[in-house]
Amino acid sequence: MDSETLPPRIHNAFLFQAFNAVSWQICLGSPLILFARELGAPAVVLGLLVGLAPLTSSLQLLVAPHTERIGYRRLMLSGWSARVVMLIFLALLPLAALYMPAPTTISALIAIMLIFTTMRGIATCAWMPWVTSIVPRAMRGSYLSRDRTYIGIASVAALTASGIILFDHSGLHAFAIVFALSFVSGAMSLYFLKRIPEPAHRAQPHELILRARWRDLLRDGAFVRLLIFSATVQLFVLSTAAFVTVFVREEVGLTDGSILWITAIAALAGTVALRLIRSRIDRLGSRPFLGLVFLWWAGYYLAWFMLATNLAGDRQLLAPMLMIAAGFFASIYELSLTRLLMNTAGDRPAMTQYFALQSVIVSVLAGLSPILWGWLLDTVQTTALTVGHLTLNGYALFFGFQWLMLSVVLLALMLVKEGNATRTSTLLYHVLVTGPSHRLAAITHRGHFHQ
């Protein structure tokens, strides 16, 4: 395979990701949270639903040592087929809820999602090794940009359609239609999954066993530093996204349909970000972009704190702007982290176990933390703390504490190293000074040329 080109039939991977994104944006995203809230589920249950997927990913530790022997394709197809079947039951649940007590329906929802995420947890450990083995190192940033663009466009479509359905219809029937869309899209993703190129040949199983001791992986300094950083981000940043949805629904007053449309626009903003960094990340490295995203987080959670304390202006204008911008920077973070992980672990003999260990440790933390965040929010929900002339309600305390925890994320980020990567300050100088100067010079030059 040419080291500078993507393999043939790679478009099937993009299409698989697109249809899969439509499916999970609904069954693991905002529509699921809104459905649970419609049933009257408390915040701790919302945290549990958010945390099921990362918690069940711990099953990867059992499967990862055997993944090469089973085969990436076989493992993925088996797991994804089973999880798609569970979406049938999810689509029928809103209809059944018309005849069942809310607590029973909530229990059934948790059971369905537990089985769904278990199947996902077993199969997903094959995906990243599969992709890493077929995509050349020099093309991984470009590949991930295209991959995430397909996901972003599909997410926009899924969330827009869900928003229309939930906006024009009321009651549980609308959720049944939305979840049926998730099932159909999941079934379509299987068609393209079967047509993804076979992975490159890797070491034989007996060679992997000699190098696949878990404690040896934890002695890999570069991998451990990246692991610590991604774990802190999951713990203190990404695990609270569901509660932003609750805040804008219950405190800002946005409707369910409006929230889904805003989320769709945020996904579209994410595809714009991917386009902007596609030609740059393989040249500049992931590290400076991770620094840029951290600066955004510092301003982002401070802004939510100000909204919760009514220190900012029009909340119905500022909240959607924050959510849309969050989609832009979330794409940059996810692409940068995934590329750096692929380049860190992709050349190791026990590649599958590196990916599995990172996924499990980060995911278990991410699975537990939404439950803890939900408990914290339930605990402080009715709290009102007066500091000088400022009154801090439960959401203000929630966002304020999260902003303080960004200091832990910063310490972890400072440990992450990447060879041949530029500095975040250099990237900022290029974005804020050099880039605008060049564009202004080009406009001026064209102006003189036409005179």
What would your notes on this structure say?
With 451 residues, the protein is an all-alpha fold. The chain has a single domain (11-197, 219-439), classed as Growth Hormone, Chain: A (Up-down Bundle). It has helices spanning 11-27, 30-38, 43-56, 60-63, 67-70, 72-96, 102-123, 127-134, 140-168, 172-193, 205-211, 214-217, 221-236, 241-252, 256-277, 281-284, 287-308, 315-345, 351-380, 394-415, 424-450; strands at 385-387, 390-392. Helix 9 (140-168) runs antiparallel to helix 15 (256-277), helix 9 (140-168) runs antiparallel to helix 18 (315-345) and helix 15 (256-277) packs across helix 18. It is globular.
In short:
The protein is mainly alpha-helical and 451 residues long. The chain contains 21 helices and 2 strands.
List the helices and strands and how they pair.
Layout: H1 11-27, H2 30-38, H3 43-56, H4 60-63, H5 67-70, H6 72-96, H7 102-123, H8 127-134, H9 140-168, H10 172-193, H11 205-211, H12 214-217, H13 221-236, H14 241-252, H15 256-277, H16 281-284, H17 287-308, H18 315-345, H19 351-380, E1 385-387, E2 390-392, H20 394-415, H21 424-450
